[in-house]
Amino acid sequence: MTVGGAESALFWIAGPLAVAGALALLFARKAVHAAVGMATAMIVLGIFYIAQQAEFLGVIQIFVYSGAVMMLFLFVIMLIGVDSSDSLVETIRGQRWAGLLLAAGLAAITIAGIGKAAFGTPRGLAEANKDGNVSGAARLIFGDYVWAFEATSALLITAALGAMLLAHRERLTPKATQADWSRERIRSGENVAGLPAPGVYARHNAVDTPALLPDGSPAELSISRVLRARGQVGTTGALTQVTQEIEHEVGDESDEQATTRKDDDA
Amino acid sequence: MTAALSSVPAADFVATKVEYAAVLPMFIVFGMALVGVLVEAFAPRRVRYPIQLVLTLGGLVAAFLVLVLYSRDHQAKTAGGAIVIDGPALFLQGTVLVLGAVGLLAMAERLDSAAPDTFTQSGSAVPGSPQEAAAVRMGATTTEVFPLVLFAISGMMMFPAAGDLLTMFVALEVLSLPLYILTGLARRRRLLSQEASLKYFLLGAFSSAFFLFGSALIYGFAGSVRFGEIAKAVPQVGGMDSIAVPGVLLIAVGLLFKIGAVPFHSWTPDVYQGAPTPVTGFMAACTKIAAFGALLRVLYVAFEGLRWNWQPVVAVVAALTMIVGAVLSVTQTDVKRLLAYSSITHAGFVLVGVLAMDRTGVSSTMFYLVAYGFSTIAAFALIALVRSSGSEATHLSQWAGLGKSSPVLAGAFSFLMLAFAGIPLTSGFTAKFAVFGAAIAHDGTWLAVIGVLASAVTAFVYVRVIVLMYFSEPSGDTAVLTPSVLTSTAVTIGVAATLLLGIVPSPLLDLAHDSSLFLP
């Protein structure tokens, strides 16, 4: 079994890349970095498959793993937040070292075993790719292993059903329409005209900037409660200060504001 | 392009033949699961429960009848060798169908009310949240569990009938995935249930990886994943034992995990405690049956020639399983955890039978699985009835004095405990006798001795529960609910089978013996 110069060059360039990607998956502190490392490893594996004349497998590897599965991972990371990272505190003392030791032992035994084995002569690719690579894979999937292939449909259905059960919140009551909301507001007598819109100013407007009430204080209701929960509400201090300064210059300052400003200066 | 297309000889593709008569029971169960999914999609919420109950039970009964009356005469190696319907496969499939139906009766319990009792109304709502309360108020149901149970059962039927490692792996996942979901759907103590589900899922995925790794090594060794080919390759291939032996052991790890053998047992107590109680019974009975069926086929059909390599390892695992299970069950204070450790010990007893390596090994193993399955489903169905302030009273102290307040439940539970302990005139005695007899006849006397000692230790545990129920004063507000006809039927079947298999075991023993030959 000989490996051509180009193929060995590819191996020695792409191989370390795959290993680096896999290690990044293990050791990256941030979920996004881990995902990128995993994508690298997956794509390089796909390249290896293609180089070994398993074109179908290589393309599927890149399409399905790097494409679909990685996208799913990224969606999950998006949902749980880029910033969230796992706590690396050990709950069982010495677990990491014990785990490493056992893993090293298993690796040593397996490598020693496989290294010692006397492999027979390989049957070669010619036989497997006799009818073309895709046809050969199709023959196996729809011929010899059609039962296993069909049985995986049960897995997909179960997974879909489980996702619905564990993640989908069934709507139990009809969704409230705009008319319903309006009726509800008038009945309760609160915010009859709807909630105030966020701040719209001459030089600045954004959903995270609260509107100002007549007395100059920010209107809490004008900001989405999601933004408030995340602590992403903008401040109005600078805006009111600019206004006050202009009012001060044109001499249109109320007594109350003047006193607070003097206090601030002091 | 045209050249590439014309070089493909599409005409000489021969579709794999499937002996439909042999696999019809599996098709029925799988088909009913699909119908159940459609019912979930289109039937109004109120009628889903009765439709699903009738469909699921009807499907299981129909599959069992077809199996007994029709498929039995069409034993075959089919689907290109992926499925082997032989004596052990048929016996275990029939057992899974019967026990699945009995377990389903307990799972469908609603205590004569319209609300579901075992499963949460809203699996997606955060425990204790307003959404959950709203779901309860609006009468939401989780009838998806019925198709999930059917999917699990179809996987359990495929597992012992798999003719190659690939099919076996797919079957392993088909049976596991629904169980992971079912585990997380308990109605009470939902956080515990969800934690159990996640633990089960993570450890199960881990063990599946072991199985897959082993399969890859074996494929490298034998050049095929078919058990028949592997068995042929074992004596021929020299100098590759160092791949074959790790391969067998890794595959065994995957299967021993499902069985719950020490040292792969750590998930068992947590999952058995967290899962909805009737689901625990179903898992304990049917998963064990399927997994032992698969283990028997792998060890007896594919790797019989390597037995001098793996047999000592499995023997040590069996001994450890019995010892650890028995010792740890002594310290348990929770009934469900106690039965979980008891199930670990029982897995050890069955492994002793597996190690006999001939027909008696197969038949005694299968008999043990049937006996244990009936008792354990009934036991967990009974545990689900004991309540304290709206929640299941699983702490042992809450069971004090049940003999006085509810003599029927205490009597039935005591009887099942005696069967677990292996007292004569119960199925447990006959089953233990069969496996230990098989072991002694085949150089496994030391294992049988350990087994008897472990039985003695566990007998102490079971008797302690009985003493607690009958000879101590009731405390707290423990109450026993009156079950509907569903649980009553399940418990009656379980107790009756436990008694019958103890008094007249010979028909089932003969059946197990007659169906103990694997197709090569």
From TrEMBL, chain A:
Record's function text: NDH-1 shuttles electrons from NADH, via FMN and iron-sulfur (Fe-S) centers, to quinones in the respiratory chain. Couples the redox reaction to proton translocation (for every two electrons transferred, four hydrogen ions are translocated across the cytoplasmic membrane), and thus conserves the redox energy in a proton gradient.
Localization annotation: Cell membrane
GO MF term list: NADH dehydrogenase (quinone) (non-electrogenic) activity
UniProt KW Kinase keyword: no
Keywords: Cell membrane, Membrane, NAD, Oxidoreductase, Quinone, Transmembrane, Transmembrane helix
Superkingdom as given in the UniProt entry: Bacteria
Keyword Manganese among record annotations: no
Catalytic reaction equation(s): a quinone + NADH + 5 H(+)(in) = a quinol + NAD(+) + 4 H(+)(out)
Bilayer-spanning residue ranges: 6-27, 34-51, 57-80, 100-119, 145-167
Name this polypeptide is given: NADH-quinone oxidoreductase subunit J
Record's bilayer topology term: Multi-pass membrane protein
Pfam families the UniProt entry points to: Oxidored_q3
Family: Belongs to the complex I subunit 6 family.
EC number in record: 7.1.1.-
UniProt-annotated stretches for the region Disordered: 245-266
Organism: Luteipulveratus flavus
Main location: membrane
TrEMBL record, chain B:
Subcellular locations according to the entry: Cell membrane; Endomembrane system; Membrane
Main localization (coarse): membrane
EC assignment: 7.1.1.-
Boundaries of every NADH:quinone oxidoreductase/Mrp antiporter transmembrane domain copy: 162-458
Top-level taxonomic group: Bacteria
Catalytic activity: a quinone + NADH + 5 H(+)(in) = a quinol + NAD(+) + 4 H(+)(out)
Membrane-spanning intervals of the chain: 20-39, 51-70, 90-108, 145-162, 168-186, 198-222, 242-261, 282-303, 309-331, 338-357, 369-386, 407-426, 446-471, 483-504
GO molecular function, one term: NADH dehydrogenase (quinone) (non-electrogenic) activity
Entries under InterPro entries matching the protein: NADH-Q_OxRdtase_suN/2, ND/Mrp_TM
Membrane topology classification: Multi-pass membrane protein
Record has Amino-acid biosynthesis as a keyword: no
Keywords: Cell membrane, Membrane, NAD, Oxidoreductase, Quinone, Translocase, Transmembrane, Transmembrane helix, Transport
Keyword Membrane attached: yes
Pfam families: Proton_antipo_M (PF00361)
Subunit organization: NDH-1 is composed of 14 different subunits. Subunits NuoA, H, J, K, L, M, N constitute the membrane sector of the complex.
Role played: NDH-1 shuttles electrons from NADH, via FMN and iron-sulfur (Fe-S) centers, to quinones in the respiratory chain. The immediate electron acceptor for the enzyme in this species is believed to be a menaquinone. Couples the redox reaction to proton translocation (for every two electrons transferred, four hydrogen ions are translocated across the cytoplasmic membrane), and thus conserves the redox energy in a proton gradient.
Family, per entry: Belongs to the complex I subunit 2 family.
Name of the molecule in the record: NADH-quinone oxidoreductase subunit N
Protein's organism: Luteipulveratus flavus
